[in-house]
Amino acid sequence: MSFPVQRPRRLRSNENIRRLVRETSLSVDNLIYPVFVGHGSGLARPVEAMPGVYCFSIDKLLEHLEEAVKLNIPGILPFGVPAYKDETGSEAYDDKGIIQEAVRAVKRAYPELLVITDLCLCEYTSHGHCGVIEDGYVLNDPTLDLLARTAVSHASAGADIIAPSDMMDGRVGAIRGALDKNGFINVPIMSYSAKYASAYYGPFREAAGSAPQFGDRKSYQMDPANADEALREVWLDIDEGADIIMVKPALAYMDIIRRVKDEVNCPLAAYNVSGEYSMVKAAAQNGWVDEKRIVMESLTGIKRAGADIIITYHALDAARWLK
């Protein structure tokens, strides 16, 4: 039966009707707030490529997070800017490293705030790659030992969830084994399962100082042309013990989010990454888009695609608008 009997506009005629039939609901409960933290005190260094984003010293981070807690954002994803870098990224697994110190401070100040620690070596290595290098190539298996050591260090500091983002084969199993062996059987793993070798990470690399010093990451991050491979990666991570899986980036990969959600009965996160954030900010600053409307539309689209959890630099603004 078609027009004029069927008139879809009847259910769009006013806001309360639209609310009743709305299919997708975005909530502050879906948001995770990524932040940058470095050594020192009294510091809030603006990230030039990410308007409104700062790299904080721990004391300033605690002040900044007060609003996130008041807005009831469930958790944060801190990225460390280390004091030193070396070939094996040793500050990543140093018990006095920046992330370990930040986790302890945040959990003391805000015990109920989830702290999800990104687990990778790229910010900490002198070469900017995510693992041990030999003859210009990232070695998979030796890197697993360092990742497992880092995971235990994060959990010991009080991290609530460990989030490996390195894309080494077998890393979820290695991390799960190390956590269990050291008594952290209840610490979940949120794995960057389908992480693509994307151009959308550019602003993040400025913020974290993590750009590769040679080559690229295409030998371990996924080809943006591939979709079936994402499902293979997801299933491998689940088989190795991942509790939550992730697709990264989000906006150019909503087909991947949907395919993963349709196939896998597992909580799914999507990372609305730095390039996606900065493009919106730049357009809004030029008056080309309505920032609030486009942010909320983008986040709703990510949720509609199937994400249960959205990691986004827009989290504070989105939480205010939702409130």
TrEMBL record:
Keywords: Heme biosynthesis, Lyase, Magnesium, Metal-binding, Porphyrin biosynthesis, Zinc. GO terms for cellular component: cytosol. Coiled coil: none annotated. Its cofactor is Zn(2+). Pathway: Porphyrin-containing compound metabolism; protoporphyrin-IX biosynthesis; coproporphyrinogen-III from 5-aminolevulinate: step 1/4. One of its GO terms (biological process) is protoporphyrinogen IX biosynthetic process. This is Delta-aminolevulinic acid dehydratase. It comes from Pelotomaculum propionicicum. The lineage of its organism: Bacteria, Bacillati, Bacillota, Clostridia, Eubacteriales.
